[in-house]
Design brief:
The structure is a single chain. This protein has about 280 residues and is an alpha/beta fold. It has a single domain, classed as NAD(P)-binding Rossmann-like Domain (Rossmann fold, 3-Layer(aba) Sandwich), CATH 3.40.50. It contains 8 helices and 7 strands; from the N terminus they run βαβαβαβαβαβαβαα. Strands 3-2-1-4-5-6-7 form a 7-stranded parallel β-sheet, with helices on both faces. Helix 4 runs parallel beside helix 5. The radius of gyration is 18 Å and the shape is globular. The two termini are about 30 Å apart. This is Putative oxidoreductase. Keywords: Oxidoreductase. One of its GO terms (molecular function) is oxidoreductase activity, acting on the CH-OH group of donors, NAD or NADP as acceptor.
Length: about 280
């Protein structure tokens, strides 16, 4: 029998809206024992929590700044006290800044993006991973939402790309470490989607062969990949080809191809949503 969230505890960061809310709905639809929602937006978080409570599952909504280690530690202690450790952890929270690198402010842009996209998943995972490892009789899942930007450089998103390259490298290394150390009951799935129509990337123009993705499709496929224990999910499938092309072509040849496909101009008209809570 395959992995199921039924009866299990699911924790989702960036859960107030967008993909986080959709992940929460999937957990409730699968009859999770408890769904723990983390987000910094208290009002939106409560709306999502109220929606889930109508589905009769146990819901815990916590206002958490995942970029702040002390905030994460305090919230994690509350979760452990109420539910033990989560069986499914979805590191979904993320932010973007779409501008040339030299236009970034160190605090409000560079540090903020790196803290939320790169350090926060590490902070959150580290709070629960030891207990996951120790409980060998129960399978656990960790889902880390990275980005296609973590595989292909794109102008006007240098800091975002850096944060997602780091997230991808950390997530896949964690997966390998768990396998090497014999903790195969804890499986890590890394998700690398292209642009998603959540509002976070408003104004972008999709490259050729990479349509704008719907958040419903991304969350559904990510959830399925998590249950299967799949190591890596890239969306759309054309990203697998671009990954190969980038690896085998000389840099200048790849630059010409990426430019022609529209990759290097996809952020030219970006407007975005300030401090969007989903990747």
């Amino acid at each position: 029998m395959g992995f199921s969230a039924a009866g299990k505890t699911v924790l989702i960061t960036g859960a107030a809206m967008g993909m986080g809310r959709l992940f929460a709905r999937l957990a409730a639809a699968e009859h999770a024992g408890a769904v723990v929602l983390w987000d910094i937006d208290a009002d939106a978080l409560e709306r999502t929590a109220q929606e889930l409570r109508e589905s009769r599952c146990i819901v815990s909504a916590q206002v958490v700044d995942v970029a702040d280690l002390e905030s994460v530690r305090t919230a994690a202690a509350e979760v452990r006290g109420a539910f033990g450790r989560p069986d499914v952890l979805v590191n979904n929270a993320g932010v973007v800044r779409g501008k040339y690198f030299w236009d970034h402010d160190h605090e409000s842009d560079t540090k903020f993006v790196m803290d939320v996209n790169t350090l926060a998943p590490m902070y959150v995972t580290n709070e629960f991973l030891p207990a996951m490892i120790e409980d060998r009789g129960r399978e656990c899942r960790i889902v880390n939402i990275a980005s296609a930007a973590g595989t292909v450089a794109t102008p006007r998103m240098a800091v975002y790309a850096a944060s997602k390259w780091a997230a991808l490298g950390w997530s896949d290394s964690l997966r390998l470490e768990l396998v090497q150390a014999g903790h195969r009951h804890v499986k890590v799935t890394t998700v690398c989607p292209s642009y998603i129509s959540t509002g976070m990337f408003d104004g972008v123009k999709n490259p050729m062969f990479a349509p704008i993705l719907s958040p419903e499709d991304v969350t559904a496929r990510s959830w399925r990949a998590m249950k299967q224990g799949r190591p890596l999910l890239m969306l759309p499938r054309s990203l697998y080809l671009s990954r190969v092309a980038k690896a085998v072509l000389p840099v200048r040849a790849w630059d010409r191809l990426a430019d022609r496909l529209g990759v290097y101009h996809s952020m030219d008209a970006y407007t975005g949503r300030v401090q969007a809570p989903t990747p």
